[in-house]
Design the sequence.
């Protein structure tokens, strides 16, 4: 029986492979600082469960395919708080940002088309783009440049006649890079000049540090017709398991196409939308507390990482990830060492090897991504364990 | 900017068009018996909300990509109740049966491939198959034959060298047709002889009436390697808005491919899975009560429809739909008449025009689908309104 050729191209997730060894290490009593996943330890706001507990209907019925109206309105009002004017029908609620990405790529890609993305990029883009019969045309960026990519020549080098969109994750995952208003304007101009969509994945919108302002691709009315925003409550409200996201655009064609897919899959989960609406209506001061917490985590892990001889690592301006180039040839081999051979007082550490974040074969083998989803003390200890592990690994 | 050609092929949902007129009629004070949608009025079992209310974790975290282990085990144990032996890893939890369908078509179809489906079929298959770059190769069935299709010659006529799977909805939506064990064996044999997958959409598994036994495609061990079951809690537990379904197969290749997609989208909603597990653990006598209720609804609506002169309609053996051929040229025109011109004591009725359930152009224009999701009195009244409407419509 046939398995589709495009899906066969996707290799097994490295996370899965290393998870097996991590579980074995845990069985042997090792404590592992898991800096590899984007699952924060921050509590989900209580109003999420409260709203769900107060849900009254006797039948858990389908919601509207485009989303519960109350949630759409709450999201519209949230955007208004940043000066962005999106109507209810510009906002389609999705099952996490993941479904929004899947809908967008299915809507804009014909078989053989590609999208331009700066590498390293969020590795699951590969899955969504491949499933939609497209490919990635990467803009290669470097650790030494802080993974900058808002450069016309660099971007246009990646564009060809089958390119349909530029995808930007801002703030960046895995790089933590935050685009300036000038960066965003330039990217949109390049998109306009090449008749491309701009797919702006802004699930880390509030995670911008050092007193910098939040800039969204939705803040540029002159490009509104080509901008598609992908959003999610997962990180903003530490509610990854609620699976509530949205797709936002003022372009009626893309919204109509996404609506066909949305109607095909009927609706998103009703209760989770009820909970999400309550969180979107919280006082915006909630974000200040959250941001301060992540900023101090970033400072903790960055400070500790900087102590490692030979590391290449810039202080990220946003999201909750930090990329680092390590003084080893192969970080997967080093991670295996950490999980199977190393410990310091019974403790070790886990990170994401970065090769999967690159489309260009061979890149990223000496880079890692760390998610600062644990408290500052744990982050410091995690970075210390990387340093101690490297010492042992390189002196074998 | 590009909108994908395959998505442009999908027309606007007719439901959307008629909904507008239905809302206008309601504004004018008309009561509408909505027999057009698969949203039952039956209460969701209380244990769903109870389990969610008792969920203790402070963080609503991602669940495992394949599903919460507790839910996978509850589903395995449910299948065991029917004598089917599925292990935890043969069961992947999905966001409704919808996501399971989407995963399966993405996994088995390359651009230009097709799947064989008996028409009329669940119209959203079109969306999933088209999004996966495939097409439908229909087996045309007829109202006069009760929509039978388990016939080797009939099925093989639809198979060509780009066919990858036979899709069976059993019990049938929209036909209500229930396959016998002999039917299922024949379909699997045809699939085996042509090296095809069998995709068995069994979301109405318990909705089998007249004292007949439930037969699942999962009950034939000799075909287990090519059978993929799509399932959902939506209908079984009247929990459409929970969006919990699953994909079940003993074929490791399809499960591995589906897992790539599952890991890409991270996880299903955590709370809904907690509630679903509780429902799967209810005493199986729950199904008896539900089945009796739907059987009496079927009898009520079928009896009333039979009174309509010129109707072609068989008593369906399962699911909660009934197809009927009406003595009109165009049921969409008739539906528009019912919503905009007709009423009986301020009441009218809405059904699904069947053209969208056919892949062959021009078929189904004189057929409708009725969902018996309301209580027996309302179903009788709904059918009566169709009869009264037809009298007025045909005597204009």
Sequence:
């Amino acid at each position: 029986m046939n398995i589709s050729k495009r899906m066969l191209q996707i290799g097994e997730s490295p996370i899965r492979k290393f998870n097996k060894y991590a579980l074995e290490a845990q069985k042997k009593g090792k404590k592992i600082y898991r800096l590899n996943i984007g699952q924060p330890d921050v509590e989900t706001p209580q109003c999420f469960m409260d709203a769900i507990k107060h849900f009254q209907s006797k039948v858990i019925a389908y919601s509207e395919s485009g989303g519960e109206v109350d949630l759409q309105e709450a999201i519209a009002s949230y955007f208004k708080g940043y000066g962005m004017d999106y109507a209810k029908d510009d906002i389609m609620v999705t099952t996490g940002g993941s479904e929004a990405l899947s809908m967008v790529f299915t809507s804009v890609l014909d078989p053989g088309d590609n999208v331009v993305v700066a590498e390293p990029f969020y590795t699951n883009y590969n899955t969504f783009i491949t499933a939609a019969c497209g490919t990635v045309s990467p803009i290669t960026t470097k650790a030494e440049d802080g993974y900058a990519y808002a450069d016309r020549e660099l971007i246009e080098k990646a564009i060809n006649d089958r390119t349909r969109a530029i995808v930007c994750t801002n703030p960046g995952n895995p790089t933590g890079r935050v685009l300036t208003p000038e960066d965003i304007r330039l990217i949109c101009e390049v998109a306009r000049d090449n008749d491309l969509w701009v797919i702006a994945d802004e699930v880390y919108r509030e995670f911008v540090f050092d007193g910098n302002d939040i800039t969204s691709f939705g803040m540029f009315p002159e490009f509104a017709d080509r901008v598609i925003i992908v959003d999610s409550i997962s990180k903003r409200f530490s509610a990854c398991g609620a699976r509530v996201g949205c797709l936002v655009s003022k372009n009626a064609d893309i919204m109509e196409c996404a609506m066909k897919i949305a109607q095909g899959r009927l609706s998103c989960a009703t209760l989770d939308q009820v909970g999400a609406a309550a969180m979107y209506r919280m006082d915006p001061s909630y974000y200040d507390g959250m941001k301060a917490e992540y900023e101090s985590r970033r400072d903790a892990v960055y400070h500790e990482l900087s102590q490692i001889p030979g590391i290449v690592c810039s202080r990220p301006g946003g999201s909750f990830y930090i990329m680092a180039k390590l003084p080893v040839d192969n970080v997967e081999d080093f991670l295996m060492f950490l999980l199977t051979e190393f410990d310091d007082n019974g403790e070790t550490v886990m990170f994401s090897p970065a090769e999967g974040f690159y489309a260009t074969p061979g890149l990223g083998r000496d880079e890692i991504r760390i998610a600062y989803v644990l408290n500052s003390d744990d982050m410091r200890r995690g970075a210390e364990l990387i340093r101690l592990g490297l010492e042992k690994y390189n002196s074998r």
The two ends of chain A are 48 Å apart (CA to CA). The CA atoms of residues 32 and 348 of chain A lie 5 Å apart. Chain A has a mean pLDDT of 95.
